[in-house]
Amino acid sequence: MKLVVAIVHDEDAHDLVLALSESKFGVTKLASTGGFLRSGNTTLLIGVEAGLVEQVLEKIKENCKVRKEITASSAMMSEASGFMTMPMEVTVGGATVFVLDVASHFKF
Ligand code: 2BA
Fold it and tell me: What is the pTM of this model?
């Protein structure tokens, strides 16, 4: 068994959870925060038989878009003007995905 950990944009999470559930995949949705942008994103945990991982990855690809986001980065200015924040564009997603081996799986 595998555990697919998918970090996705909040705006894609609803449709992706729906698509996974309709295909009978078990999914848990967690609210998470990206360390770099320090804004909300969604982490999905999907436990799945190894042979079905590709299907899960396809669902993720179908439902997660790449986006450009603007963040403020600190830039050093002259001693007189001090620090100033500059807008910086970063490309986010479609999805950041980790596939982990599951040692054991219990349901009590
Ligand atoms: P954030 O950490 O908020 O990162 C958002 C986007 O900012 C990243 O998009 C990337 O394009 C950019 N970025 C991140 N760190 C950067 C840095 N040090 N310098 C310049 N740009 C940087 P994605 O790569 O698509 O990542 C989306 C979210 O996935 C991340 O949100 C984070 O929550 C998660 N993530 C990405 N890589 C990860 C990893 N290796 N381990 C755990 N979580 C990860």
Answer: 0.89
Residues lining ligand 1, judged by CB closer than 6 Å?
Answer: 7, 34-37, 41, 90-93, 96
CA of 56 to the centre of ligand 1 (A): 21
Contact 41, 34 (CB under 8 A): yes
Q: Which of 61, 55, 68 is nearest to 22 (CA)?
A: 55
Interior/surface letters 35-74, b for 16+ CB within 10 angstroms, e for the rest: eeeeeebbbbebbbeeebbeebbebbeebbeeeeeebeee
Closest-CA residue, ligand 1 atom 38, reads 96
Tens-digit pLDDT profile for residues 58-103 = 999 999 999 898 887 655 555 666 667 788 898 988 999 999 999 9
Which token pair is 30?
């967690």
Distance, CA 50 to ligand 1 centroid (Å)? 26
